[in-house]
Design brief:
Layout: E1 2-7, H1 10-20, E2 27-32, E3 42-43, H2 51-60, E4 65-68, H3 71-75, H4 78-84, E5 88-90, H5 94-101, H6 103-112, E6 120-123, H7 126-133, E7 140-144, E8 153-156, H8 159-171, E9 182-186, E10 191-200, E11 204-206, E12 211-212, E13 215-217, E14 221-224, E15 229-232, H9 239-259, E16 265-275, E17 278-285, H10 293-299, H11 304-313, E18 327-335, E19 347-348, H12 351-355, E20 360-364, E21 367-369, E22 375-377, E23 381-389, H13 392-403, E24 411-412, H14 419-426
Parallel strand pairs: 1-2, 1-4, 2-3, 4-5
Antiparallel strand pairs: 6-9, 7-8, 7-9, 10-11, 10-16, 12-15, 13-14, 15-18, 16-17, 18-23, 18-24, 19-22, 20-23, 21-22
Helix pairs in contact: 1-10, 5-6, 7-8
Amino acid sequence: MRILVVGSGGREHALCWKIAASPLCDRLYCAPGNAGIAEEAECVAIGAEDVDALVEFARRESIDFVVVGPEAPLVKGLADRLEGAGIATFGPSAKAAEIEGSKGFMKDLAAKYGIPSARYARFTEAAPAKAFARQFTPPIVIKADGLAAGKGVVIAASHAEAEAEIDAMLNARKFGAASAEIVVEEFLQGEELSFFALIDGTHALPLVSAQDHKRVGDGDTGLNTGGMGAYSPAPVATKAVEAAIMERIIRPTVAGMAAEGRPFKGVLFAGVMVTKEGPKLIEFNCRFGDPETQPMMLRMKSDLVPALMAARDGSLASFDLRWSDETALVVVMAAEGYPEKPKTGTVIRKLDEAGKVEGVTVFHAGTRRNAAGEIEASGGRVLGVSALGKSVAEAQARAYRAVDRIDWPGGFCRRDIGWRAIEREKV
């Protein structure tokens, strides 16, 4: 098969790494890719949201299967356009991708189909939003309705902060058109996890759990980011918790989307809070997580390609996947200034040395080669230093050993990825 992966981040590098290992893959392209992806695939200089150019390329190169990584092209209808051109595509239609494209739509869907989630309301004007926020004891969650590159959620520590954030989103358009409407909701207490399932429109095949670290600083301090590290499996996701997530969240969502005339095909990524009352939905994403995909792909023993094809073809009912019992962990190395103003163009050296640590794979996220052929930072989250281990502590130790071999004065990382699970291992 001739396969095209769309995207340029760490998620796409992990997918390319896994797809390239499939005996079904004869030729692998990635648009636009990055310096690390170039080791696995032929990178094509087409932006992930350039729908017309991607469809034209897929036609011209007789692509058999397209795997769409990021959410923005899915919300823009890339899967619809490719399928309309007769090109098999992994990823939901634009109507189904609205489950991530609109926080309000997702919350309304959960309310309609009895999916446990936080109390909420939708607003386009600041005064009623502030009045609603005052009903809650802080912290209070304020979300831009539309896509904001993982940065559209603010957890306000006080009513004053919530009101300032409401003004910033609705009146000052902090996130542009994405914050023309907002969702204000209660803060859920508990432990958060990421749960993934492949969906074929009717059936759901659970994948493995992971736990992300959203805050930029050690001890979960500082600004929210797209994710500073993750590990899989998440110990909080016991068999009972996973069964409850499938029964109360995933299956009702699949049925609800079909009933709404928006059958979902692709991967459904549920952000879940495990509360005292059981798992509750925080949000849905219509694609694989970043950085959760990196440890997930390290743990997957099965060939990824047939699983993605089965989701697209509607044949997941009798499908199964094999996973390593080991833990995988990824430490994200980001450019100084991330998440607000990352400094790009800094040179990264000794990546080969990092890759020599036992169990380690270094995935690239925001990298490019400069005129001198050196690898340099081209984004905020730049590298995903990933490792397998028999325990979270071992995977963590290996990942940080590799991080310490990398020569990149312009980068930084958290030093406590996996801390919750390691505390559990000590008990």
